[in-house]
Specification:
The chain is α/β, with parallel strands linked by helices. The protein has one domain: 4-Layer Sandwich (Purple Acid Phosphatase, chain A, domain 2). The protein contains seven helices and twelve strands. Helix 6 runs parallel beside helix 7. It is globular, with a radius of gyration of 17 Å.
Length: 268
């Protein structure tokens, strides 16, 4: 697949490893009760040669287990690195979590549809209600050959229609559905579909290990969370926390796996 030049405008929303004043965010995190709190982590690349993938997975699970009130976790693609025999092994690491978890397929998750269902217990396109009633939609964007694909718009629209009465809907899909990053794929129909539903609060991507910020498309925020494995990208491993507060306000912030430092935060 042809790689596109990295768009400079995206870096405006990215972060580097330095101290950023986050007083208001820190006070909100500490003092405001939460209706829902979940974690998103992407690109573990379990089994990639010449990487310490067992250590990075163990460190992430330990960090998430130290978090208070994690209602669920989403591993947003590239769970393994091409070798399908490793999928059951990475599941053992996820099973060490105290919280429920869900997964999306990335382009390196090269197992058959049948094997995916057998291991994870859910199809590649999957949706559910979170404990507060929010709608969670997990979309597939690849296949056994590792192709970059647009998400299934028919499935997405059917779930968005089903969830029209909900106050919050969150969509997870590994590959960016626009060409604003080096490794995105242009999917205008999917972006247009999302823009038509006012209760979609955010869309979450992985795939681009060097991106950990936010972009706005047709009024909707699209967020990345860097990576916690693999051989390239940001020099620090991260995951994203999302919180719905009691007043309905939604906030999100990026944390380092190593020591829990908060690198950036946004109100959605």
């Amino acid at each position: 697949m042809q790689r596109r030049p990295f768009l400079q405008k995206l870096t405006l929303f990215s972060t580097a490893v330095f101290s950023i004043p986050l007083d208001i965010l820190s006070k909100t995190i500490q003092n405001e009760p939460k209706k829902l709190r979940f974690v998103v982590a992407s690109d573990g690349h379990f089994g990639q040669p010449n990487t310490d993938y067992t250590r990075t997975h163990s460190e992430l699970m330990e960090s998430i287990n130290k978090e208070e009130q994690v209602d669920f976790v989403v591993f947003n693609g590239d769970l393994i690195h091409d070798n399908p025999t490793l999928m059951p092994q990475v599941k053992l690491y996820y099973d060490a979590l105290k919280s429920p978890y869900f997964v999306t397929r990335g382009n390196h998750d090269r197992v058959s549809n049948q094997e995916w269902l057998r291991i994870w217990g859910n199809p590649e396109n999957h949706a559910f209600h979170a404990k507060d009633g929010s709608g969670i939609i997990l979309l597939n964007c690849s296949n056994e050959e590792g192709e970059y694909l647009c998400g299934d718009v028919t499935y997405l629209k059917s779930k968005l229609e089903e969830y029209t009465t909900l106050s919050h809907v969150f969509v997870f899909i590994h590959i960016s559905q626009n060409d604003w990053t080096r490794h995105g794929v242009k999917c205008d129909e999917l972006l247009e579909t999302i823009s038509n539903y006012s209760n979609v609060k955010a869309v979450f991507h992985g795939h681009d290990h060097d991106v950990d910020g936010i972009m706005i498309n047709r009024g909707k925020p699209y967020l990345w969370d860097g990576h916690f494995g693999g051989s390239w990208g940001n020099p620090f491993h991260t995951y994203r926390v999302v919180e719905i507060l009691e007043d309905g306000k939604t906030i999100t912030y990026l944390k380092t796996v190593k020591d829990g430092t908060i690198l950036n935060g946004h109100s959605l």
